[in-house]
Specification:
Layout (H helix, E strand, L loop, with lengths): L15 H8 L1 H35 L9 H59 L38
């Protein structure tokens, strides 16, 4: 782990720190937030540079210029800075999206674990249902009480005793 005369690095794996960051969503978001701050700072400075370049390039006139020729000469420079700023804005939004998606991925993994555990429990219950006591039969099947109503067993031989609707 130390540097000897043979030129070995301090760490066996130079990507170990990034591997740790990739495994923790909070550290991932913090790391990308640092990059986002740098990108936003670059963007702010380039916006100032864009404004000053526009003023200088459009103000540079050559003897014999017609109206709008200075603007046409400055257009390629302004366009290149505009493209850079547009790309920096997309990088900034991409960094933010990536941090949110990393957090969402972690939440989704937790949900999948929970859902699989619940499904396993339901499957176990389905395959091994709990034993239930059989309901007690208070009356004898052969004898009928005087007021059976619609809930009691009937046969075609005692239909005349039932009330009609």
């Amino acid at each position: 782990m130390s540097t000897e005369n043979n030129g070995q690095p301090f760490f066996d794996d130079p990507n170990a720190a990034l591997r740790e960051i990739a495994q923790n969503p909070a550290a991932y978001a913090h790391y990308l937030a640092d990059f986002n701050r740098v990108v936003l700072d670059m963007q702010a400075k380039l916006e100032i540079l864009q404004r000053e370049t526009r003023v200088h390039c459009r103000g540079t006139r050559v003897e014999g210029d017609k109206m709008g020729q200075a603007f046409l000469r400055s257009f390629p420079v302004e366009k290149s800075l505009n493209d850079i700023l547009k790309n920096l804005k997309s990088i900034s939004s991409g960094l933010e999206k990536s941090a949110h998606k990393r957090h969402a991925h972690d939440e989704r993994v937790k949900e999948v674990r929970k859902n699989r555990k619940e499904k396993a429990q339901l499957k176990a219950r389905k395959n091994n249902p709990p034993l239930q006591a059989a309901p007690e039969n208070t009356g004898q099947q052969g004898a009928q009480s005087p007021n059976m109503g619609y809930g009691g067993p009937t046969s075609i031989y005692n239909l005349d005793r039932r009330e009609s609707a």
